[in-house]
Specification:
Number of helices: 13
Order of helices and strands: HHHHHHHHHEHHEEHEEEHE
Strand content: 5-15%
Number of strands: 7
Length: 359
């Protein structure tokens, strides 16, 4: 019983990370590893040329010292791809930081001659900040500080005075830090923006989703309490949509949804916020008074009614939509109360014959 419970708990933990979040974490770590590997190879090639030119050691001996860490990093990056992505292993905060700290330690171990690669220790701290957990950030700051001290002592013991002050070695190391940190921050920013988009955009219609709608409605309600500027919402529901799916299939139903979504997108403007509220329901928040909001709703209803949506090469059908409209007033204490009024209007439109707008 205990083993089954443990397995179930592990599955639940994995499910807490949505597919989008897991993919984003994987992409950030995957690209970060390979950015570090490529940049370290280039840095070590430059250092190899400097040491061989200055007669530091025989080129064969120097090649091994220079190439060892990048090769280990390549093995680590390949192992990460195999065990994390292909076997779908749990990618939690601690595993992410453990992998990155291991990479940072390897990079710093490669720098036996200068203090210039110590800055790389800030990378795990940046990851901790992205994860947004305060206790992890504090622990990581301590770990990074310890790594900096160990690296400083390691370099002092391993490198002779001529190499620690070598201008080209130190400059190239600083450039490595700048390039790696900048590229990884850009990578993090790119994928976190992608994640933000994925969590607020409906995948089928590319409109905002239910959560984004309520977030915007709450913001607009707060503005309304201060400015008393006109604010309205409409909710549109495709009539008899279940029958559409049952008769023509879900693929055709998706096509119908996309047609209405396109109309909503075309009817939106800087004064409108459009969302797929759920299922066959669409919603729009409008900085408009009652007359303008009803006019907008009627235009959407008529445009959708006029659309001929192909079933096959010879057949097309048109469908209708019912719309409920509500205008904000001081009586509404919450966004939910405001939305409920539009929902009541939609119910009225459905009950009174469908294919109409009710206020």
């Amino acid at each position: 019983m205990g083993t089954k419970d443990n397995k179930k708990k592990k599955q639940q933990v994995i499910l807490l990370l949505s597919q989008e979040k897991w993919n984003t974490r994987y992409d950030i770590l995957h690209h970060s590893l390979w950015i570090i590997v490529k940049c370290l190879f280039l840095l070590d090639i430059l250092w190899f040329c400097i040491f061989v030119t200055d007669g530091y050691a025989a080129w064969t001996e120097m090649l091994w010292k220079i190439a060892a860490v990048p090769l280990v990093l390549v093995v680590l990056a390949v192992a990460f791809d195999i065990f994390i992505s292909k076997r779908r292993m749990l990618l939690n905060d601690y595993i992410m930081l453990m992998i990155l700290n291991t990479v940072v330690l390897l990079v710093m171990a490669d720098d036996q001659w200068t203090h210039s690669l110590q800055v790389i220790c800030i990378l795990p701290v940046i990851f901790g900040m992205i994860l947004g957990r305060l206790e992890i950030i504090y622990v990581q700051v301590v770990i990074s500080a310890v790594m900096v001290v160990i690296h400083f002592i390691y370099v002092e013991m391993c490198s002779g005075p001529p190499w620690k002050d070598h201008i080209l070695l130190n400059f190239s190391g600083m450039m490595f830090n700048v390039i790696v940190v900048a590229r990884i921050i850009i990578q993090i920013r790119k994928y976190t923006q992608m994640l933000d988009t994925q969590t607020t955009i409906d995948s089928l219609t590319r409109l905002h989703n239910h959560e984004a709608f309520y977030e915007e409605l709450n913001r607009k309600m707060a503005e309304y309490r201060q400015t008393k500027e006109p604010l309205s919402i409409l909710i549109a529901d495709i009539d008899n949509f279940k029958k559409v799916n049952d008769t023509y299939g879900h693929a055709y139903g998706d096509k119908v949804l996309k047609v209405l979504a396109d109309i909503f997108a075309e009817e939106s403007s800087t004064r409108c916020f459009v969302a797929r509220y759920g299922g066959e329901e669409f919603a729009m928040i409008m900085d408009m008074n009652q007359d303008d909001a009803v006019t907008k709703a009627q235009r959407i209803r008529r445009r959708f009614e006029q659309q001929q949506i192909p079933i096959d090469a010879d057949t097309a059908k048109s469908f209708t939509v019912s719309v409920g409209v509500a205008c904000c007033c001081s009586d509404y204490m919450t966004s939910s109360q405001f939305f409920e009024k539009a929902d009541e209007a939609l119910y009225k439109a459905k009950a009174s014959g469908k294919n109409r707008v009710c206020l």
